[in-house]
Amino acid sequence: MASVVVIGTQWGDEGKGKIVDILTRYADYIVRFQGGNNAGHTLVVEGKKFVFHIIPSGILYEEKVCMIGNGVIIDPAVLLTEMDELHDKGLQVTPRSLMISENAHLIMPYHQSLDQAKEAALATGKKIGTTGRGIGPCYMDKVGRIGIKAGDLLDDSLFRERLQENIEEKNFLLIKKYNSEPVSFDKIYADFQGFAERLTPFIGNVSVELDRARKSGQNILFEGAQGTQLDIDHGTYPFVTSSNTIAGNACNGSGFGPAHIDAVIGILKAYTTRVGEGPFPTELFDGIGDELQRKGGEFGATTGRKRRCGWLDGVVAADAVRLNGLTGLALTKLDVLSGQPVLKMATEYQLNGQRLSAMPSNIRQAAAVEPVYEELAGWQEDITGIRDINDLPVKARDYIKRIEDYTGVEAMLISVGPDREETMLLKNPFEKK
Ligand code: GDP
Ligand code: IMO
Ligand code: MG
User: Fold this and answer.
1) Which among 31, 79, 90, 425 could bridge 67 via Cys, Cβ 3.0 to 4.6 Å?
2) Cα–Cα distances in Å, from 37 out to 131, 138, 226, 382?
3) Exposed (0-12), middle (13-18) or buried (19+): which is 406, by Cβ within 10 Å?
4) Is the peptide bond prior to 238 cis by the omega test (within 30 degrees of 0)?
């Protein structure tokens, strides 16, 4: 019996969907604990591609239980569409296979309107480049104590009252401040009555269920969304998302005690990407950046935007080791680096003649740091067919070894392609020492 947290170490899109899918084989429960449908987690199984935005990436295994914890924010229309799409592919999502926390907040149509109106109103250079899914405004309402929870769908008069209170304030903002279209109470109320009818059987107490599962010896896998540098507290603020993305939030965001976590796996893409605005010290603006973007298929799984690409950033990795207490690494997209004569990894930053070993908190400093690079020899061979680490080119093994030495954390998984099969599991985090 073990509980394992998997999180992104960089700016998201490290391959969490794929790694969670691999580890689900050994888990009984798979739990999302923060973020919403700003996430886009891709799985490729026997050449078939699935992208999940809100349903945990364990859903393809029919006998497992997926949970959406209280820390997640849910757009019910998106959730139901995702469930319908799975149904069309022959996979049933039932109250036995999915539980939604009654304490998870709902993303309402006015959150999306406000997210988009706010971004549009920001000047160039100030825009965050959000996914436009209503994430910031929904978390604002949660913290502001005016949010609407999934559990409120079970109490019509409470839901109606909460909606009325909100509509008045949101339409004032939309019309007066953003010169934007108001939302309709009647339309939202009617739509949400339909959502309530369909979702009611899925809503429950995730914390109680996880406690029961743990006590009965079940393996629990927590699936992070976004990445460490997008964390609201520890990331490159304000160019971050509106939730805590680090491993500690697996507990807050699901109602699970921290003493019961056994392992924390950080997913590290073999190079770095970022989608949206904000500092990115190792970003490449040359042909190598374009090549990584093309070879890595680096387009956002949620918005389709091109991802910015750059070299591996050891400072970012070291931040992730510290902030998440990583006990293992999953190194992804190593195959994309094949063919590069030289690889670079930032080991420190330089700013005004000083060396820095952590991302500065000041956003202007974060944008101004210059990476200090270490160079490593690349390899030319295609490695996508390799399934034994000893068969990797020596230079690829040296690259992995250097990352392990630099971070002080061992690589437990190596991914050499998008497919479930294109993976080397060196050590199973569910097996206790
Ligand atoms: P997530 O948000 O962390 O789940 O990652 P995304 O799904 O947004 O982006 C990762 C992309 O890389 C997806 O298209 C995956 O199918 C793909 N991918 C994952 N691991 C590998 C790998 O090892 N090699 C290659 N070439 N692609 C990978
Ligand atoms: P996964 O789980 C990459 C980025 C957005 C934007 C910032 C704020 O697939 O790794 P938001 O809509 O959250 O208010 O946007 O965060 N962002 C992501 N970038 N992967 C994600 O999720 C992201 N979720 C949000 O691009 O810069
Ligand atoms: Mg993604």
Assistant:
1) 31
2) 9, 12, 10, 34
3) middle
4) yes
Map tokens 């934007």 to a residue.
Answer: 180
Kindly state the average pLDDT of the residues 337-361.
98
Residue owning the nearest CA to atom 9 of ligand 1: 13
Write the CA distances from 94 to 28, 101, 145, 219, 235, integer angstroms: 16, 15, 31, 20, 36
CB of 228 sitting under 6 A from ligand 2:
no
The residue whose C-alpha atom lies closest to atom 21 belonging to ligand 1 is 418
**How far is the centre of ligand 1, averaged over its atoms, from the C-alpha of 15 (Å)?**
4
Query: Rounded CA gap, 163 and 153, in Å?
Result: 11
Q: How far apart are CA 75 and CA 111, in angstroms?
A: 10
Residue 369 structure tokens: 């740091």
Cα 272 from Cα 11, distance rounded (Å): 8
26: how many CB neighbours lie within 10 A of its CB? 15
Q: What is the pLDDT of residue 125?
A: 87
